[in-house]
Amino acid sequence: MSGVQPPGLLFLCVANSARSQMAEGLARRLFGQRITVQSAGSRPRRVNRYAIEAMGEVGIELTGQRSKSVDDIDPASVGTVITLCAEEVCPLWLGTAPRLHWPIPDPASDDPAIGPDQLRTRFRDARDTILARLVGLAAASVPAGVELRTAGADDRPAIVALLTACELPLAGMDDQFPHGYVVAVRDRQLVGVAGLERYGDAALVRSVAIAAAERGRGLGVALSANRVNAARDAGAGAVYLLTTTAAAFYRRFGFRDLSRTALPPAIAAAPEVSTSCCASATCLALALTRATA
To answer: What gap in Å lies between CA 210 and CA 219, rounded to an integer?
Structure first.
């Protein structure tokens, strides 16, 4: 499992008023300042108010955004082009950057039979589908020179050392090790790890740790996205985690705060969750959306 972080993302749809605007906002939050994120359209219009509302619900402000023409984008700033059109003809891009196509139905509609509540639902569905796609992209966008692979039994000493250095708990680690873990390796040295434990229809992300020299390069995003994708691919309906320091980071993936009393019993009884050292940790949950449109 390996990939290269794209130097820039460009999201395209016709009006640059809904899907591509939401994709730009979500990608900016997920990837941070490490890459350039832009959006544009072939016939730009005003940013849709329901897009602004849907993004505001997840803490992303689009009020100051404007619709832009594809002709205004500098090709040199684009590493990957992602088109979001479904039933419409997508904007033409003459640059040489690789292209991905995520066909997502336009949530906007002029049909008077579609009321405000239905429109809000359509925009939320589009938003969540785009985010699921972005998490899939993030899982494949690892720093250059780093490889992600499934953990093996021989990796245990290096993983324990890394978790200990990062002051993360070891309780229950062996219950679903090594099959639930993925490691990041650079020059044969283990530089990152992330675990996923399955409990029926629920999953628990745990033990996400990055070597100090690798922090700030996007490896934490890639490892976390990898485990969220693994939970989705395994058919989990939701994924949970506890953190004392990284709640804001995981909200970028769509995780939301959750009371411990609302945890599924199997998750609440997991060793990492039930130990006293995690009593002050923030509990987060993510309802999983299929990444396919």
So the answer is: 7
Residue pLDDT, tens place only, 204-217: 999 999 999 999 99
Strands 282-287 and 238-243: antiparallel
pLDDT, residue 208, reads 98
**Nearest-angstrom CA–CA distance, 44 and 65:** 12
The closest alpha carbon to 183, from 154, 212, 204, belongs to: 154
Is this model's pTM higher than 0.85 or not? yes
Helix (H, G, I), strand (E, B) or coil at 67: coil
Active site residues: 13, 85, 90
Span of 100-109, 169-178, 182-191, 284-293 with lowest mean pLDDT: 284-293
d(CA 9, CA 70): 13
Q: Distance between CA 160 and CA 236 in Å, rounded?
A: 27
| Alpha carbon distance 223, 219 (integer Å) | 6
Separation in Å, CA 202 to CA 86, 135, 179, 231, 247: 32, 18, 17, 8, 19
155 touches 178 (CB < 8 A): yes
Token representation of residue 71: 């002709």
Alpha helices in 40-151 (DSSP H): 49-56, 116-139
